[in-house]
Structures are given as C-alpha cells and as structure tokens.
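Course assignment 3, question 2. Fill in each field.
Student: A.L.
Task: Predict the tertiary structure for the chain below.
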Amino acid sequence: MRVVIAGGHGQIALRLTKLLAGDGHEVVGLVRNPDHEADITAAGGQAAILDLEQVDAAAVAEVLAGADVAIFAAGAGPGSGKARKDTVDRGAAALFADAAEQAGVRRHIQVGSMGADRADALTDDEVFTVYLKAKWAAEENLRRRDLDWTILRPGGLTDDPGTGLVRLEDKTGNGRISRDDVALVLAGLCDTPAAIGRTLELVAGQTPAAEALKNL
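Answer field:
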C-alpha cells in the first residue's frame, strides 16, 4: 500500500510510519517543518513539506495521488491557542478530506479524541473545550463525505511500551492507551473493511490488537 499521513512528525505518526514501512508499505508523511524530514526518513518514510494551514486542497491532492490510504493524525499540539485548535484540528482535517476526494483516495482514517461528543460536559478548561469541539466538527464533516472513513478515538495517551493488548469498540468508556498500541491499531485499520463507516474508541485491554480488529 501507499499510505499518506497528515501530521507525519507526530509521536503516533512516527511509530505508525515505522510499522508500515517495516511491513513493506510506502509511507509519506506531511510536515510543515523541513527540519522534521530526517525523523520521517529514519522511520522508513518519505516527507512531503506542506503546511496544511496555508496550502489549498489541490496541493495536498497532488501528494495523495495514487495513495491507497489517507490518515489524518495532525493536531495543533500542547501549548497552542484556541485559534490553532480550530485551524488544525478542524480546518486541516476538512482540507485533507477535500484533497482525498479530489485525488480519489477512498480509504480515510481520522484520529479523533475521546470525549469529542461531550465537550461541554467533560471539562471547564476553555482551550481544551475548543479542542474537543474542533475534533467533533472534524468528525461530523468526515461522516458526511462519500469516503470509506473510520474515526479512531484513543483514550488518554501514554508513552508506556506497547503491550499489543487493547479494547477496540464503538464505546469503551474512559481509559488510557499507549501511543505504541494506537499506532499498531491504526496500521491494522488500513486493511480492515469492517471498520468502514464507524467511529471506534480505543483503550488498553486484554485482547490482542489483531484479534480486536478481526472482531469488528
């Protein structure tokens, strides 16, 4: 497969790139900072330098041309303000989906956030509320599209070593999950037709990731 990842320098995306490249797939990571190219190359991928807050969908579609899977794993990141939560976590996600449609890439996976559907009830933190609402708007935008989409909502992310044991369901309840295991599940979702048209939650569990994907 040829897989294009938006937010290619993210912690999950670099792990995912290493997994996919290790299985023989071609991986392209979209990044806005040229200094990040070396990290993507070291993980086995190729970097495409594009700022999703500045380019149009046609420019992104050029990179997506010929891809089998498009994965949106970008985010404004910790320390960013309310404005960038909207322009990246919502706006860039919509732009990436526009580009996928233009390029004819049907398989589309979007990394969301646990709690995106209940932002006002979840926190009093104004910036985090904006972030969750941006993620929810991005989900709603994707659901309306004629794409083979899957939305994956991980629980609280950790840097613990992956166990390969997960709980992957339509609703899991709150929990935590290692970035290693999120990347493992994302890699499996690339070729899991049963996940199409579904919003899935992911936390640590007792089921091997491959079995959890098969059980969908």
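Instructor remarks: The chain has eight helices and eleven strands. The longest strand covers residues 148-154.
Grade: pending
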